[in-house]
User: Fold this.
Amino acid sequence: MKWLSVLPQQCIVLMTCLLMALEAVPIDIDKTKVKGEGHVEGEKVENPDTGLYYDEYLRQVIDVLETDKHFREKLQTADIEEIKSGKLSRELDLVSHHVRTRLDELKRQEVARLRMLIKAKMDSVQDTGIDHQALLKQFEHLNHQNPDTFEPKDLDMLIKAATSDLENYDKTRHEEFKKYEMMKEHERREYLKTLDEEKRQREESKFEEMKKKHGDHPKVHHPGSKDQLKEVWEEADGLDPNEFDPKTFFKLHDVNNDGFLDEQELEALFTKELEKVYDPKNEEDDMVEMEEERLRMREHVMNEVDINKDRLVTLEEFLRATEKKEFLEPDSWETLDQQQLFTEDELKEFESHISQQEDELRKKAEDLQKQKEELQRQHDQLQAQKQELQQVVKQMEQKKLQQGNPPAGPAGELKFQPPGEHKVGDAPKHPAGGDQPLPPGHVQEPAARTDQVHP
Assistant:
């Protein structure tokens, strides 16, 4: 299982090196309770979600490759450049037939899933004539030209896509956070416009008071500095601050014992600092901002300590960082509330974009309303035509009754017998004999009496 913990990150590649086993670190755990515990061999480690839209596919491919002894040995000895360059992908030709068959099945399932997503998206806009093959080109984590088998090119594309996406993941998160903050300010200003002068002043005063209250917090130590780590050593680990030892600290917080401090293990170290600024019970503290602060702290430490930029901190890198001047005498750390997150120009541009989106949505709503009204008009027109036809049929039936021709029933039978009419079976015989009935309006002469004497 070694490759699951070493290369998974080295790669950010291979999903932080194929993400083979990043262990999500409990934030509030008392580390003294795990000091003597070793990693259980063969224990299933629950990996954190990468946030990639093909996360499940990536994990399944890795799980299958892990079952092949040859591939696992090659990965253990491969360096990051071999993985990035695609050299490792060529080893796929040497894995067992069973593994290749399972990988083929996984790829077919992923292609089918992507096609379903495309169809659902196209259906939502009522598009027709979908070219799935062309639309599959937008997905760069698999070879869409061969949807049935998993080839070395598929593994190469999966590694490169995961590497690129994970490298941009933090940048994307920062951009989303900035949009979040601008939206908050936009909505606040729009709300103020709806208030009268007195209420607006009260809201402004409340806003400034909450900002001041949020900024009134204990000093936040510089992330990765000696003071910050000693605070964790003392308060989270329950150890004597006078006996602080960087090497022991590293081993204590390498929770999965893989010889590295990964991004999740580093972020767990900043919990005490974040608790000084953010409390979920306080109205003025935004937990979204807390996670952004945690991300900034982790990025800062990685930039300072991670020499080879593999998104892992080795013991050697960690000890070397503790020898720097910045470790003992760091600059002060500015929290988010001490920074300008966006400019007025950026806010105006954002609001302009929001206004444009609102106009587009309004236009769509108006078009839909017009379509609804047109459908209602057509419905009313059909209803009027239906009623008109029903009225005409009714008038025709009444006219037939007035002319003495009763309307026919569904099977063609007469609905009723007018007075003086006979049933069909009792029609009077024709005077000339035979079975022909008398014509309509004919009055039959009375039959001659049998006792009458003829001259």
Summary: The beta strands are 260-261, 313-314.
